[in-house]
Specification:
Blueprint lengths: L6 H5 L4 E3 L4 E5 L4 E6 L3 E7 L2 E5 L13 E4 L4 E6 L6 E6 L8 H16 L1
Amino acid sequence: MDLPIPPTARSRRAPLRVGADDLLLRLAPHEHRRLQLLAPKQLEVLRGRAWVTVCGEPEDRFPSRGERVALSAGSEVLVSGDSTDRSTLLRLVAPDPLPSHSTSALARLAGRLSWAGS
């Protein structure tokens, strides 16, 4: 005999494992997803406003359209849309590498130090 599955058990899903690939995630109103990050990511809100809870961190974050949240590898994150009437669109991407021009200041400093020491 099969036992009926309660609606709350049906809605529980295993965490979505997010690796090196980028991910586009659309959340309907009142929908939430658990993410298990295998690599560091930037969560960017493309539409709406998100509610982001990182396990082990004391406060939730509420980034809006155009804002990003840095997430560490190994984190378990709960994301949901913070809108009751519209879906929320999120993108998870690899963190930006250091801009190439950021090394120029270090190169200038190294040049000054080597000149001062001679």
